[in-house]
User: Which sequence fits this backbone?
């Protein structure tokens, strides 16, 4: 009787362990995850899926005035059926849309990845009244079906080179 | 006999290391509910293991 009762505790402990493994697989691994790569100049930033999973968050990135920023958006489908959605990328400033960059339907096979790429030319998007000495910012909104990711791009001002003082 | 125990020890350590690595890698992808349930299951698992070893008079 005592042995049966003791073994019951062992089986319950094993059941708990199995439950943890199932949660890690079903909740932690399976699903659709997206990663954003921001490449400006020689720097590459990688925004991991767990950043977006921690609530409604916005990623911030700084670029130099006139710099072209390359974006890579990777959708990782860790599910048993094909994932399809429309990906729409647009640039905003002060709650107003500046430009649509991408509007594309994607289909990702089970346990496969799909990657989209686009370039944001900060100089091209800049309003005429903004001079290189002024800072500016944009919000990039990436919409994938119901999911929305926001990236704020801070465009740093370009300071004119210092003119050396004349030698007296 | 001693060598067997040492090998068992290494085996257990590697198992725990592997599970720890996977847990650290995937815990960030878990939802809040998933994390809470996992925590409760870990507590329950250690409690049941404790009762089991108590029965073995460890």
Assistant:
């Amino acid at each position: 009787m005592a042995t049966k009762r003791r073994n019951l505790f062992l089986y319950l402990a094993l059941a708990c362990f199995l439950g943890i493994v199932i949660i890690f697989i079903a909740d932690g691994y399976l699903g659709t995850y997206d990663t954003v790569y921001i490449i400006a100049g020689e720097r590459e930033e990688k925004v991991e899926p767990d950043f977006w999973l921690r609530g409604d968050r916005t990623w911030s990135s700084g670029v130099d005035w006139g710099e072209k920023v390359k974006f890579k958006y990777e959708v990782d489908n860790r599910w048993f059926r094909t994932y399809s959605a429309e990906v729409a990328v647009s640039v905003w400033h002060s709650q107003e849309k500046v430009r649509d960059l991408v509007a594309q339907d994607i289909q990702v096979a089970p346990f496969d990845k799909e990657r989209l790429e686009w370039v944001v030319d900060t100089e091209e998007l800049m309003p005429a009244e903004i001079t290189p000495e002024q800072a500016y910012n944009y919000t990039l909104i990436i919409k994938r079906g119901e999911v929305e990711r926001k990236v704020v791009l801070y465009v740093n001002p370009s300071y004119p080179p210092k003119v050396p003082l004349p030698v007296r | 006999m001693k060598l067997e125990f040492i090998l068992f020890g290494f085996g257990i350590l590697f198992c725990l290391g592997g599970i720890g690595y996977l847990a650290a890698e995937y815990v960030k992808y878990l939802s809040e509910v998933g994390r809470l349930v996992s925590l409760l299951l870990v507590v329950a698992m250690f409690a049941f293991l404790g009762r089991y070893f108590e029965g073995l008079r460890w």
User: Anything to note?
Assistant: Chain A has three helices and nine strands. Helices of chain A lie at 2-29, 49-53, 122-125.
